[in-house]
Amino acid sequence: MSIMKRMSLIFRAKANKALDRAEDPRETLDYSYQRQLELLSNVRRGVADVATSRKRIELQLAQLEQQAGKLQGQAEKALQMDREDLAREALTRKSGLAGQINDLKAQHAQLQGEEEKLVNAQQRLQAKVESFRTRKETIKATYTAAEAQTRINEAVSGIGEEMGDVGMAIQRAEDKTATMQARAGAIDELIASGALDDATSQGSGDDIARELESMSSQADVEMELMRLKGLSSPGAPGAIESGAGDTSDVVSSEAPQAEGEQR
Fold first, then answer.
1. Which residues are within 8 A (CB) of 242 and not within 5 positions of it... i.e. 6 or more apart?
2. Is residue 192 domain-resident?
3. In the prediction, which pLDDT does 11 show?
4. DSSP state of 246
5. Which of 18-32, 37-51, 157-171, 211-225 has the lowest mean pLDDT?
6. Residue pair 102/95 in contact by the 8 Å Cβ criterion
7. 56, part of any domain
8. Would you say residue 168 lies in a domain?
9. Helices (H), the chain
């Protein structure tokens, strides 16, 4: 297959696909019904034209027959008056009219037959158009119902384009919410562990509290150190027996010893 033939085939295929997507069966049915109505209207005009021609011929026939009757009467009257020449002239003219009358009668019969055919065709076409209209409305209603059902099913299942976009938006919102929750939890853990300072707790009052906590911690360290010294001093069985007694007793017993050593 040549390149031009392939390009032509591809173009026709894509054009056909585009037309299929753009075509609405309801619009196509309405257009077909409109065309049938136009055809029916043309047939009716044809019937009217033929009927008009038939009626015109009937009028001409009536006039010619009236003229023929008049000539017949003139011929009879001329014979009564012994005017054979006038009678012959009247009969000659009547004979000429008789030929025209016969021709018009033949045309009338032909037009009458054509009119009957057109009337029958009009009746059949009108019945077909009415049947098509009923079927068209049924198909349109069925198609509309099927289209609505399809959209509802797509919306329920989430496979529709619009609902797909909504589902993606919800998924993105849930992902961002989960990310923000995880970030907030991580920051809380870092603040609780001391890796990060709480910016809302920084100030002069918090500095004093931290310093007091530091001094209290140092005092506890000194008291524990003095207790351990008392426990480790020689000749202090009472201190050893007391074990983990009150640290205030240890501090009071150590104070006189420190004063004697200074003296």
1. 249
2. no
3. 66
4. -
5. 157-171
6. no
7. yes
8. no
9. 3-22, 25-80, 84-157, 161-193, 204-232, 237-242, 247-262
Look at residue 113 and tell me if it is in a domain: yes
Question: What's the rounded mean pLDDT across residues 201-228?
Answer: 69
| Cα-based angle 42, 45, 51 (whole degrees, multiple of 5) | 145
Q: Between 216 and 257, whose confidence is greater? A: 216
Domain, as residue range, for 73: 3-161
**Is the separation of the CB atoms in 111 and 53 below 8 Å?**
yes
Query: Which residue's structure tokens are 């099913």?
Result: 153
Highest mean pLDDT among 167-171, 240-244, 255-259: 167-171
Return the SS3 of 234.
Answer: coil
> CATH number of the domain that 16 lies in?
1.10.287
Q: Which residue is associated with the tokens 């140092």?
A: 218
Cα-based distances in Å from 180 to 40, 190, 193: 71, 15, 20
Query: What total of structural domains would you count in the chain?
Result: 1
Q: How far is CA 165 from CA 62, 156, 157, 195, in A?
A: 82, 14, 13, 42
Q: 191 or 39, which is more confident? A: 39
Q: How far is CA 163 from CA 121, 150, 172, 224, in A?
A: 53, 13, 14, 71
Cα-to-chain-centroid distance, residue 23? 14
Element (H, E) at 131: helix 84-157
pLDDT tens digits, one per residue of 177-192: 888 888 888 887 777 7
d(CA 213, CA 202) in angstroms, rounded, equals 15
Tokens of 263: 């003296």
| Whole-angstrom distance, CA of residue 166 vs CA of residue 222 | 67
